[in-house]
Amino acid sequence: MSFDYVIVGAGVIGSSTAYYLKKALPDSRILLIDRNHTAGAGNTARSAALYRNFFSSQTNRTLAGSSIGYYLGLGDKIQVDPIGYLWLFSEEQWNLSQKAILQIGQEKYKFDILDRDAITGILRMNYQPKGGFPDVYAGIFCHQCGSLSAMALANHYVSGFKSMGGEVSFNTDIIKFNLTGKNSCYAPWDDVSIDGIIDSKGATYSAGQFIIAAGAWTHDLLAPIGIAAGILPKKRQLFALKIEDPARFTMKSTKIPAIILPAGGVYIKPVLDKNIMIAGCADDLGQPFLMSDPEPETLYFQRAIEPVLNQYFPELKDFTLSLKWAGYYDYHWPDMTPVIESAANLTWVGGTSGSGIMKADAIGRIAAAGLQGHREAILADGSGFTVSRLSLRNRDVEKEELII
Ligand SMILES: Cc1cc2nc3c(=O)[nH]c(=O)nc-3n(C[C@H](O)[C@H](O)[C@H](O)COP(=O)(O)OP(=O)(O)OC[C@H]3O[C@@H](n4cnc5c(N)ncnc54)[C@H](O)[C@@H]3O)c2cc1C
Q1: Which pLDDT score, from 0 to 100, does residue 254 have?
Q2: Is the domain of 132 the same as that of 162?
Q3: Total domain count for the chain?
């Protein structure tokens, strides 16, 4: 089986890359592989699928902002729901974030700065919690934020890719790379590249170029062949709470936005038509950069999330925990911004650091441009983006200050 390009990973990133590569090179033979039975069934399916254009880094604003513009155009096809984000800050957080917030153009990126009085007009919550939990001091309401269906987005790209003649192989688990020659004991003058990749059933796939879009699995896949991808997995969990009366949380009859609370990195995504609030948390120290136990932990909910919810939303007490799941962020430290880098005829695309759904369109366009040897990619909003800015060797991105 010989191809011009083989892409490993049909999550939202591999699918978007496959789509834009095939669109640009309709005569090329391109194969998209995944070990799952369908596109997007890895961490794409486990995400909260929220999107926001509110980042301190100009690079992240460009990647997310242009992608969101494209998603809004797809609308119902990917279940876009522009519910907005309400980011709540304690006084200390607000003072620390001022510099980052002030450099974001309010007009262009469409957000409102709210004082506590304004927030009380939107949300029915406890503004003065006790026991070391900070008061709500101020907030940012971001209009170009919301949620979508991440699976529908991945499938949008894959069906477009297939309709142009792209080939797909699901249930295919890549376990090994065939390097030129003997796979070991290379001399410095040897010209080493990837000849093929081998799946768990022993089939070999040959190609001119290999693209690894394996998300959180990237490090484990590439480290054995001597590539430090700069991308590491970290477990993240989500908990769906069934609530009786969502109207109790809002002061108006408007939709409840996604809410980021000022304690513990806890955030909530409302799914009101199902009477559900999905709660997550981005903890750090103590959570290993490893593919650890993939099961969600009720104890983690009880210790890290429930106390925060109880303080700010005491009325949530009568919820039932109806569903829980876990996945992995694929982090690129230290700047939390995606990576597109190559070694020989292999390119890896990842490091989406918890915001891959909202940036997938731009990342796919940039990766596809780089694979064609272009210096610049054209994003959905018509702006140009220099491909090498996301590389490791010639990286040119800003550190992200507004991380959930
Ligand atoms: C709990 C949680 C909440 C999140 N919330 C958000 C959010 O609200 N908004 C947002 O934008 N992002 C969010 N994210 C992050 C988002 O899910 C990721 O950034 C995004 O899914 C990355 O896409 P991907 O295609 O790189 O990875 P994946 O979707 O994981 O795709 C990688 C694919 O590679 C395949 N693969 C790996 N190794 C092999 C192999 N050896 N052989 C064959 N196939 C292989 C896997 O099966 C998988 O399908 C969240 C993530 C988690 C875990």
Answers
A1: 63
A2: no
A3: 2
Residue 51 · residue 71 · CB < 8 Å: yes
Q: Are 86 and 262 in contact (CB under 8 A)?
A: no
pLDDT tens for 9-32 read 999 999 999 999 999 999 999 999
Contact (Cβ atoms closer than 8 angstroms) between residue 86 and residue 141? yes
pLDDT in tens, 64-97: 999 999 999 999 999 999 999 999 999 999 999 9
Same-domain check for residues 127 and 159: no
| Residues 299, 304, 305, 310, CA torsion sign | positive
Tell me, in angstroms, the distance from the centre of ligand 1 to residue 46's CA: 8
Ligand 1 centre and the CA of 44: distance in Å? Answer: 4
Q: Ligand 1 site: residues with CB under 6 angstroms?
A: 8-14, 33-36, 41-44, 46-50, 173-174, 213-217, 221, 236, 238, 280, 327-330, 350, 352, 354-358
Q: Write out the two tokens for 139.
A: 């907030």
**Is residue 381 within 8 Å of residue 65, measured between CB atoms?**
yes
